[in-house]
Amino acid sequence: MIDLHCHILPELDDGARDLADSAEMARVAESDGVRLICATPHIHPDHVVLPEELEGRAHAVNEELQRQGLDVRVVPAGEVAEPMLDKLSDEFLECVSLGVGSRWLLVEPRPGPLGQHLFDAVERLADRGFRSVIAHPERHPGVDFRDRLAALVEQGALVQATAALVAEGPASDYLLELAGEGLIHLLGSDAHSSHGGRTTRLSDGLSRLAEVDLVRPHLGWVTSDGPAAILAGEDVRPPWTAPLI
Question: Which of 36, 46, 61, 163 is in Cβ range 3.0-4.6 Å of 2 for a Cys bridge?
């Protein structure tokens, strides 16, 4: 499996505390069947992230994972705050894309309900040749949340839900409903540390998605084939027809 959303790079944002923390996050991921982790530090005014450093930072983590005999690899990327998108050059965005240069970006919506500003941002990114993966939409409920999410999908965006919140919690049943309508495409751990919070496990969320008739035949695509195609920069479409009504 591939985790497209994880804050595993140490001492960079609000993610892993140190290299030992990163290694323990990778150890949990390996035990869950995850073999590739996209390191997605926050590209946000609250954090100083230099894109030219990301490859070296990921390399340092990979060296430690190899030293410990872990069969997990980390690739650099970023989680870009939606208000930052227009301020960043194409070159910068390519450096923090999922699969470095793939032109797929993990986009974090601004706080509050999904709004027109996000639709406009996704459209402007498309005009620049970028495609959008919308991160953890479950954090942005609103009165017309479902319709707004459907509109983003119709724009060509893919939607990544947090695996732990699909697995259990107050939003779980609603996320499964959305998956049944073709509005959840990918899972990510959004893990920040091995010391607490969400873990680097995807399988629990995937098991819940197996309850959804529309998605059940395509579980391998959700956590493996789809993410691999994104990292390769392909024109990714979900393997089901979303009943957007």
Answer: 36
Q: How many CB atoms lie within 10 A of CB 69?
A: 7
Number of domains in the chain: 1
Domain-located, residue 28: yes
**pLDDT tens digit sequence for 23-49:** 999 999 999 999 999 999 999 998 888
Does residue 112 belong to any structural domain of this protein?
A: yes
Comparing CA positions, the residue from 87, 84, 140, 88 lying closest to residue 107 is: 84
User: Is 245 within a domain?
Assistant: no
Sequence letter at residue 30? E
Q: DSSP 3-state assignment of 228? A: helix
**What is the pTM for the complete model shown?**
0.95
Q: Could you give the CA distance from residue 24 to residue 67 in angstroms, rounded to a whole number?
A: 13
More confident residue, 47 or 193: 193
Quick check: 116 and 123 in contact, CB under 8 A?
no
Q: Helix count (H) and strand count (E) of the chain?
A: 10, 9
* pLDDT at residue number 242: 58
Amino acid at the residue 155:
Q
Q: For every residue of 172-227, which 3-state class applies, written as one string?
A: HHHHHHHHHCCCCCEEECCECCCCCCCCCCCHHHHHHHCCCCCCHHHHHHHHHHHH
Query: Over the Cα atoms of the chain, what is R_g?
Result: 17
Domain boundaries, position 166: 2-231
